[in-house]
C-alpha cells in the first residue's frame, strides 16, 4: 500500500511539473517572466575596450538596469535560458516557432526583406516574441544556443515579451508587414487556421497586405499593454518621424546606429519632433557613442509622456523603403531606465 502511495505521488508530481513547463520569457534564474530587456554592451566604450559579451538586464522586478553576472554567449543567462526552450523542443508538433533575421546566420541576406530580427515560440497556451538587433543570431535549432562573434563589437538590445496564445494571430499579421527574412520555422497543422499568415510566411509565400502599415495593441500575459508598429516597404518614410512620434503625440529622442553615410539628421519639420541621441550612459557608468551602438530605441522627450519603444530600424534613408517596426509601451520601469541612459542628443 505504501509503495502504491509513493507511486501515485510520483505520477502526480510528474504531471504537475509537466503542466508548469509553459513556454515563456525566462529571467536570469530560469523563472517565467512577463518581459525582459537585455542591453548588450559594445566592445569599445569611449575608446576603452571591454569583452563585448557583458550585458545589462531589466525585468519587472528590477528598478533599473543591472549588470548581469552572466555573459550573453552563455546559456545560463535570461537570453540563453529562454532560447533553450526552442533548442530543446523544436521537433515537437505541439508548438510553433519562427526565426527571422535580415542578416541570418550561415546564409546570404538580400535586402528585399524587412530590416527586422526576431524569434517566436508558442503553444496553444502561451509563448514569447523576442525582437532584437543582433545580425547572424540566433543559430539554427540544430546548432544549439550560441552568440555570434560578429555581435560582440556593437551595443545591441533584445526585448522578450510573454503573450497568451490569443495574441499570436495579431502578431502573425504584424509579421506580414515586417516582411521578415524567415530562415527556419515550424507551424504544425493544429495552428494553421489561427495563424494563417504566419503559416504562409513559413511556407515561403508573401501574404497580401491591406494597407502600407499596421498598428496593433498587444497585451502581455500579465496585462501590460504594448503597441506594435509595423510598416511595409511600401510605406516609404522614416518610421520615427513620419509615424511613431506623430501617432504617440510626443517628441522623441532616438538611439539608432549612426554609422552609415545615409543617416538622417534630427527632424523638427512636423508637429512632433525627432532628435538623434549621440551618447548613451548606462549604470556603472557604461558610456558609449551612438556609432558604437547597433541598438534601435526611442523615448519621449517629455517625462510626463513616458513612451519607450524598441525595434528594428535605424534613422537611415536607405531603410525608409524597407519593412520594420517598433514595440512601444508606457511602462514606467522601462521608460525611466532608457530615459536615464540618454546622455546626449543633437537638436534640430
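-> sequence recovered:
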Amino acid at each position: 500500500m505504501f509503495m502504491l502511495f509513493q507511486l501515485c505521488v510520483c505520477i502526480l508530481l510528474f504531471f504537475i511539473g509537466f503542466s508548469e513547463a509553459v513556454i515563456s520569457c525566462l529571467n536570469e534564474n530560469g523563472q517565467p517572466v512577463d518581459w525582459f530587456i537585455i542591453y548588450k554592451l559594445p566592445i569599445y566604450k569611449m575608446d576603452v575596450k571591454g569583452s563585448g559579451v557583458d550585458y545589462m538586464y531589466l525585468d519587472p522586478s528590477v528598478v533599473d538596469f543591472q549588470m548581469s553576472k552572466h555573459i550573453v554567449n552563455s546559456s545560463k543567462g535570461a537570453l540563453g535560458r529562454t532560447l533553450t526552450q526552442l533548442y530543446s523542443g523544436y521537433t515537437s508538433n505541439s508548438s510553433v516557432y519562427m526565426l527571422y533575421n535580415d542578416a541570418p546566420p550561415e546564409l546570404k541576406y538580400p535586402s528585399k526583406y524587412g530590416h527586422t530580427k526576431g524569434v517566436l515560440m508558442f503553444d496553444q497556451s502561451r509563448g514569447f516574441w523576442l525582437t532584437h538587433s543582433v545580425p547572424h543570431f540566433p543559430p539554427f535549432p540544430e546548432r544549439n544556443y550560441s552568440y555570434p562573434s560578429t555581435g560582440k563589437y556593437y551595443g545591441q538590445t533584445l526585448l522578450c515579451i510573454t503573450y497568451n496564445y490569443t495574441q499570436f494571430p495579431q502578431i502573425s499579421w504584424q509579421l506580414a508587414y515586417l516582411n521578415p527574412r524567415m530562415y527556419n520555422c515550424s507551424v504544425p497543422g493544429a495552428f494553421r487556421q489561427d495563424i494563417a499568415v504566419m503559416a504562409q510566411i513559413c511556407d515561403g509565400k508573401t501574404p497580401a497586405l491591406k494597407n502600407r502599415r499596421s498598428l496593433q495593441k498587444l497585451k502581455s500575459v500579465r496585462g501590460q499593454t504594448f503597441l506594435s508598429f509595423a510598416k511595409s516597404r511600401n510605406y516609404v518614410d522614416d518610421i520615427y518621424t513620419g509615424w511613431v512620434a506623430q501617432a504617440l503625440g510626443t517628441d522623441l529622442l532616438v538611439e539608432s546606429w549612426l554609422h552609415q553615410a545615409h543617416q538622417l539628421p534630427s527632424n523638427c519639420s512636423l508637429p512632433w519632433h525627432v532628435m538623434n541621441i549621440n551618447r548613451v550612459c548606462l549604470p556603472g557608468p557604461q558610456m558609449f557613442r551612438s556609432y558604437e551602438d547597433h541598438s534601435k530605441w526611442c523615448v519621449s522627450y517629455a517625462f510626463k509622456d513616458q513612451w519607450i519603444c524598441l525595434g528594428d530600424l535605424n534613422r537611415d534613408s536607405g531603410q525608409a523603403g524597407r519593412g520594420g517596426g517598433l514595440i512601444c509601451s508606457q511602462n514606467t520601469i522601462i521608460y525611466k531606465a532608457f530615459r536615464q541612459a540618454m546622455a546626449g542628443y543633437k537638436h534640430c
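DSSP finds six helices and 21 strands in the chain.
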